[in-house]
Amino acid sequence: MTHVRTALVIGGGIAGPVAAAALRKVGVEATVFERADETTDNVGGIIGLAPNGMNALASVGLDEAVHKVCRPVPSMVLLSGTGKRLAEFGSAQAGPVLHAVWRKDLFLALAGEAKARGVRVEFGKRLVGVDESADSVTARFADGTSATADILIGADGIRSTVRSLIDPSAPGPRYTGLLSFGGRPTKPLRVPSTHGSLHMVYGKKAIFCYLADDDETGWFVNMPSKRAMTIAQARAVGAAEWQRRLAELFTEDRSPAVEIISASDPDELVIVGGVDDLPHVPTWHRGRMILIGDSAHATSPSSGQGGSMAIESGVQVARCLRDLPSVPEAFAAYERLRRPRVERVIAEGRKVDQSKSPGPVGRALRDLLLPTMMKLIAKPERRAWQFDHRIDFAAAVSPAELG
Ligand SMILES: Cc1cc2nc3c(=O)[nH]c(=O)nc-3n(C[C@H](O)[C@H](O)[C@H](O)COP(=O)(O)OP(=O)(O)OC[C@H]3O[C@@H](n4cnc5c(N)ncnc54)[C@H](O)[C@@H]3O)c2cc1C
Fold it and tell me: Residue whose CA is closest, atom 21 of ligand 1?
């Protein structure tokens, strides 16, 4: 036991509330400080939580609250732009391949559950600096207030302030070569139901993902673009213009993309702009400060694992603080448990990104090889290291686990 009694958790996204709730379970009083106000999630859109993420939530009893706001997706079907079925992941027997959830609902569910366990969550608190001493750390916020605790956990996302406070020379995000958009149709469609499954169409110019059901249809697009764009730059283009450009990307494909995009309300278009990852952050902790979630290990959305990795890290950091005798040992153990796994996931996500933005020769090869590749990838044993990963929160961190 590290004798840590209090923790400041910076960031009320996914990793922050999970870590704070898990810390409460091990007797640490945690407070979450989120820069946004309670009604915004900054980005929007749907994300999919993988089975390993749901398992990690269950390990600290947070799964029930999340189940209430998400819908199980039984399988993922991969199709070519010519309409050919390439592969299917998942089966009724194996359970859902993922749980789809609106990001805002997830944030609210996690923060609500953390609060129900006695975690204080303060909104409108943007961290701008820290003061450190041998046995405590003080966070300074943009509104002039401050807070002090035994440790500070940076769960403040891919553009983390805590990361640069730990290591001013830390690398920043890397552009994946893709712009991201999403939406939901508001006009009637003639599209056949996917019966809750997610369909991914590898089109000629971009990949179109959608889920069409009686009660809800949603979609997202990863559009290759050499030019990176911030969210502000992308939004400045205008929703109606993006809707037109996105629909145009899919005119040569045999898929419902054009119909679904055109039936969506431009006012509800989710414009994310360029998507980034963070392949290697050399320093995850210094003194009494540590990084979890995207601040340490952001993966491209193509991996479908960013949220789940953030949850796993939130759970593991609490477990290490419970079981190791000192803060430096707990932080080192956490890094040992997490770094190899998250960096492997990031590398896999990068490979998927590259398959989404090939040149003409790459595209021809991709279309030729995709059916065989997909048959291999779709084998459950190939994905077990990612999806079947389980954290036994009740078990003490063992030397064998640390390798
Ligand atoms: C388009 C897109 C699609 C995605 N799809 C998926 C998917 O399908 N599945 C999946 O698992 N993952 C997906 N991801 C990734 C996933 O969203 C992230 O990995 C996950 O949100 C990381 O959680 P986090 O808590 O570490 O960071 P965030 O969720 O980014 O939360 C960080 C929080 O910190 C706050 N903050 C930032 N700076 C400060 C500060 N200085 N002071 C106080 N608060 C601060 C922010 O306001 C934010 O609320 C997607 C990402 C994108 C961009």
Answer: 307
